């Protein structure tokens, strides 16, 4: 038996602390597609950690790069100083970014990347003399991390309601999830592109375009349960933003680095935003790091506007481009390229899609939606107990099937490492299918009352 661990002091993030601590789930090791629990059980990772370990766990090349950097130079500031690895990392990122997005601002995670991008958008308009553009537009059910900027443009009530007004002057588009019209779509849903027109017909009309700085969306809304953009939706957003001089930011914290079989979702959709926020797969999650990829002329506007020898953008973090993170980033980019992992994801996704849709018809499955190596399985909620059904499936997968899945509300979200093979895909969906088949029907509330 492993030593009992004192779980008292760690206030766990986004966790039902009391429930968790009553029966902790402890991961103690990881390699490739698997975790090992503290009691030695092997767990297939169906979520790449948290959408982040795209090349699989403890990749030897990434581990070695971090170890080597830790022994060479632990830390160097990037304020008025620099170090080789951070420039190398920025160059590697620029080389896989969509055309034109070749300037890179580093931070430490997705939340900081979002706040950084929003600040670049506001400052950009101001330095080019259009400082009335201060309004930001996000989307309902959007997740952009937990900074005040991110929760303001985000659209999750639970993440917002305790924290006051966050940023003023924020508006939201409706989200495009429409199970009524699009249930069990394979790939992009047919219906709903017209929801992008809201940007023009409702928000631009209401506020006037001269007040709007930027629109931020996740190409796929991951955290709230895999909400896919209907065919043509992102293209429409791009067109409307262009028409009114509004910057378009894609939050690619989960879609970056091969999740859809391309470097970024922007490449998959053929829509180039003005900025991309990324994190997670940026270092294969081995060291925290985030980044904003910025259109060169936006960057150049700052360079030209500031007096010579002046700091052009008053923003940054002590750990912007930390040497260990930069080393992990360079190594991760090499691994993705050398192992052809983005192409692998593209070629594996039809099999993944087929396996996902094999769940159609099982008890409580009300929708399956997928794109690339992402899929969402929406379950009917237990009456009066939202989240209970999916969480129960999560627990059974973990304790009984040796499979890690992720749930949000009553939606299972799967996003395995891109190295997953066909038998492992079968194991992942087979485990969920077995658990669903064994789920006890929940008595109708009215029947119980009668
Ligand atoms: C789209 C998106 N943006 C931002 C974030 C926040 O990233 P982090 O948790 O690294 O701050 C996430 C996290 O899942 C995300 O999915």
Tell me about this structure.
- It comes from Noviherbaspirillum galbum.
- Keywords: Aminotransferase, Pyridoxal phosphate, Transferase.
- One of its GO terms (molecular function) is pyridoxal phosphate binding.
- Its cofactor is pyridoxal 5'-phosphate.
- This is Aspartate aminotransferase family protein.
- The protein has a seven-stranded mixed β-sheet, with helices on both faces. The protein has a four-stranded mixed β-sheet with strand order 1-2-3-13. A four-stranded antiparallel β-sheet has the order 11-12-15-14, covered by helices on one side.
- Strand 11 and strand 12 form a beta hairpin.
- The chain has two domains: about 150 residues, Aspartate Aminotransferase, domain 1; about 280 residues, Type I PLP-dependent aspartate aminotransferase-like (Major domain) (Aspartate Aminotransferase, domain 2), CATH 3.40.640.10.
- The termini are far apart.
- About 40% of the residues lie in helices and about 15% in strands.
- The protein has about 450 residues and is an alpha/beta fold.
- The protein contains 17 helices and 15 strands.
- Bound molecules: pyridoxal-5'-phosphate (PLP).
- The site of pyridoxal-5'-phosphate (PLP) has 14 residues, from helix 5.
């Amino acid at each position: 038996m492993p030593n009992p661990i004192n779980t008292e002091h760690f206030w766990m993030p986004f966790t039902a602390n009391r429930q968790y601590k009553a029966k902790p789930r402890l991961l103690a090791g990881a390699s490739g597609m698997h975790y090992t629990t503290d009691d030695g059980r092997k767990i297939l990772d169906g979520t790449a950690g948290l959408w982040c370990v795209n090349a699989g766990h403890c990749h030897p090349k990434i581990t070695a790069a971090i170890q080597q950097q830790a022994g060479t130079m632990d830390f160097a500031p990037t304020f008025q100083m620099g170090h080789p690895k951070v420039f190398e990392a920025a160059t590697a990122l620029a080389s896989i970014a969509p055309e034109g997005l070749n300037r890179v601002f580093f931070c430490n995670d997705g939340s900081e990347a979002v706040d950084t991008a929003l600040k670049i958008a506001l400052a950009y308009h101001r330095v080019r003399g259009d400082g009335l553009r201060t309004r930001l537009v996000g989307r309902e059910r959007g997740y952009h991390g937990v900074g005040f900027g991110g929760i303001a443009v985000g659209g999750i009530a639970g993440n917002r309601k305790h924290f006051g007004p966050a940023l003023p002057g924020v508006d939201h588009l409706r989200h495009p999830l429409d199970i009524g019209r699009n249930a069990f779509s394979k790939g992009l849903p047919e219906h709903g592109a017209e929801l992008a027109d809201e940007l023009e017909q409702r928000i631009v009309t209401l506020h006037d375009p001269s007040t709007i700085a930027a629109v931020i969306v996740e190409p796929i809304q991951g955290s709230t349960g895999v909400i896919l953009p209907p065919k043509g939706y992102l293209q429409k957003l791009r067109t409307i933003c262009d028409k009114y001089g509004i910057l378009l930011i894609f939050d690619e914290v989960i879609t970056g680095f091969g999740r859809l079989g391309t470097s970024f979702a922007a490449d998959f959709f053929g829509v180039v935003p003005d900025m991309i926020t990324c994190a997670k797969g940026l270092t294969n999650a081995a060291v925290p790091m985030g980044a904003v990829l910025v259109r060169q002329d936006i960057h150049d506007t700052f360079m030209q506007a500031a007096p010579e020898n002046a700091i052009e953008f008053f923003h940054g973090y002590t750990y912007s481009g930390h040497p260990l993170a930069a080393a992990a980033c360079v190594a991760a980019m090499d691994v993705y390229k050398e192992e052809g992992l983005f192409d692998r994801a593209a070629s594996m996704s039809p099999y993944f899609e087929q396996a996902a849709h094999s769940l159609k018809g099982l008890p409580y499955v009300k929708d399956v939606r997928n794109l690339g190596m992402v899929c969402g399985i929406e379950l009917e909620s237990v009456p009066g107990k939202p989240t209970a059904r999916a969480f129960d499936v999560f627990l059974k997968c973990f304790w009984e099937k040796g499979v890690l899945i992720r749930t949000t509300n009553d939606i299972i979200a799967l996003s395995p490492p891109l190295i997953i093979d066909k038998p492992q895909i079968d194991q992942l969906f087979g485990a969920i299918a077995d658990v669903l088949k064994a789920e006890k029907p929940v008595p109708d509330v009215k029947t119980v009352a009668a």
